[in-house]
């Protein structure tokens, strides 16, 4: 069993996307893991964080979840 299976990326208090050194390989987008946008959706990042890391439009599913009153 992989000791790092539960180690996931996260967004820190300043909005930086952090990939811990022991991060599960599925989150290593640079090494053939999930696409970065898939990781951003999974983390349910804010629009500000999304725009920092992706040129793609902010997903409607996240907009509805993160900004339900807009």
What are the salient characteristics of this protein?
single chain, 70 residues, mainly alpha, two-stranded antiparallel sheet
SSE inventory with pairings:
Blueprint: E1 10-11, E2 17-18, H1 36-43, H2 47-53, H3 60-66
Antiparallel strand pairs: 1-2
N-to-C SSE series?
A: EEHHH
Radius of gyration: 13 Å
End-to-end separation: 44 Å
Q: What kind of sheet is the major sheet?
A: 2 strands, antiparallel
Assign the structural class, choosing from mainly alpha, mainly beta, alpha/beta, alpha+beta, or little secondary structure.
mainly alpha
* Low-pLDDT runs: none
Strand fraction band? 5-15%
Helix content: 25-40%
Can you tell me about this structure?
- The structure is a single chain.
- The protein has 70 residues and is mostly helical.
- The protein has one domain.
- It is built from three helices and two strands.
- It has helices spanning 36-43, 47-53, 60-66, and strands spanning 10-11, 17-18.
- A two-stranded antiparallel ribbon has the order 1-2.
- A hairpin with a 5-residue loop joins strand 1 and strand 2 (17-18).
- The N and C termini lie far apart (44 Å).
How would you concisely characterize the structure shown here?
This protein is mostly helical and 70 residues long. It has 3 helices and 2 strands.
């Amino acid at each position: 069993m992989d000791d790092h299976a539960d180690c996931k990326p996260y967004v820190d208090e300043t909005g930086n996307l952090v990939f811990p050194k022991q991060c599960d390989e599925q989150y290593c987008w640079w090494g053939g893991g999930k696409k970065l946008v898939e990781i951003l959706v999974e983390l349910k990042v804010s629009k500000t964080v999304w725009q920092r890391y992706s040129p793609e439009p902010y997903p409607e599913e996240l907009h509805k979840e993160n900004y339900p009153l807009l």
